[in-house]
Amino acid sequence: MLTPPWVLPSVIELNDVSLEYDGKSALLRVDWRVNRGESWVVIGPNGAGKTSLLSIINGYRWPTSGSAEVLGKKFGESDLRELREHVGLVSSYLEEWIPPEEAVLNLVVSGKYGATRLWRTITPSERRRAESLLKTMGCEVHVRKRLNELSQGEKQKVMIARMLMSHPRLLVLDEPCEGLDMGARESLLTSMSRLATGRRVAIIYVTHRTDEIPSGFTHALLLKEGKILASGKIGDALTGENLSRCFGVKVKLHRVGGRYYSIVEEVEARGGTLPQHQ
Known about the structure:
single chain; alpha/beta; 2 domains; four-stranded antiparallel beta sheet; 13 strands
């Protein structure tokens, strides 16, 4: 059994974790602690190690060295299949396993069982919870539709509702705004802000754009080349200086209404720098 959440010292505890595969180093000596109720944005350029970090958190990869504990389950001493049942994951690759004609209501309820298809009759209590979650995500009007009738933004909201169906103790979202237009993105970010400010569950939100960070998030982790460049409360870790070091460009960061907007001022070029006007 998993340790009850109210007695967990932390939700995620990584100590000196390194990960190597395919002859390459994906993570190098990562120390990271996430406490219950915290909402973390993980940000970094492509190839920084974000996906590798998520693969460990979700129990799909084990560290090459170091120790990892998620939801009280120590890697090497626990059955990680049980861990996965309590981690809510939203990632684009999950859609590949879902038939396009699947009913929205069935898909949401399937999250209770960690599946992508529902092979049983929905109970009245399951229906009530699924409808409530769709309402929370602002997409209750789609309860009688099928997945292939929805836009990409609507699908993402339904997938988050599905993720919440099992009462997960940790939410992990891997670039959920990818492929969304401006309106769909802002609608999704508003829904994520509501989850973050509720502080009922820990959230890990992966992106490479500061303007896709929902308001209300409490902490930030910046990754570069598999190493932690900065980590801590979002106001301390997410700075223009740290972003400049992380992405290799000169960045000025502005905070407006709880959101973060970055302006690239200079990029490295052969023989010097090039000014960027936006």
